[in-house]
Amino acid sequence: MRWVASLNDTVSRVIHSESKRFNARMRADKGVYQEVHAGLEAEEACYRRARLDFQEHMERKREKARVEDEIKDAVAKMKRARKEQRSAEAVVTAMAEVKAYSLELLGKGKKNRRQSAASKGTPGSARTFVQGRGTVGRTNERMGFFQANLGSRDG
């Protein structure tokens, strides 16, 4: 290992001395020095422009990714909102289908006297009226009364 370290030292000393000699010769001939210096400056300027272009490109790429993420989030929110709106519309539709009747219309809890005739299945017996989810047994006369009143309440 010691041999490698001394070899590295020797090489670095030689490079240093040669670079000093080269710089001294270049400065001695002003025309050559100016041309080489101008070439180096142009090359460095080219690299600076390339680096700036790359940085701008990467910034645009990051911005594009950020906007795409925002769009994805907005689409997901919009889908959730549409789903919630559909479920709310379904609730409103269900509420509109289920009508509320007053106690006077329903007979104030009185039992139907013709209930026994309905159970026997005789003509003129009670029919079943279905509104929303519930089922209410009523006679033919009351059915006519309900249907007449429902037509005025639907408006």
- In DSSP terms (H or I, runs of 4 or more residues), the helix count works out at 5
Strand order within the widest beta sheet: 1-2
What distance separates the N and C termini?
102 Å
Radius of gyration: 47 Å
Secondary structure: helix percent = over 70%
Which secondary-structure class do the elements indicate?
Answer: mainly alpha
> What kind of oligomer do you see?
single chain
Shape descriptor reads rod-shaped
Number of strands: 2
Can you give a write-up of this model?
This protein is mainly alpha-helical and 155 residues long. The chain folds into two domains: 2-95; 100-153, no CATH class. Helix content is 77%, strand content 6%. It has helices spanning 2-28, 30-97, 103-106, 115-120, 140-153; strands at residues 127-131, 134-138. It has a two-stranded antiparallel ribbon with strand order 1-2. The model is unreliable at 122-139 (pLDDT under 50).
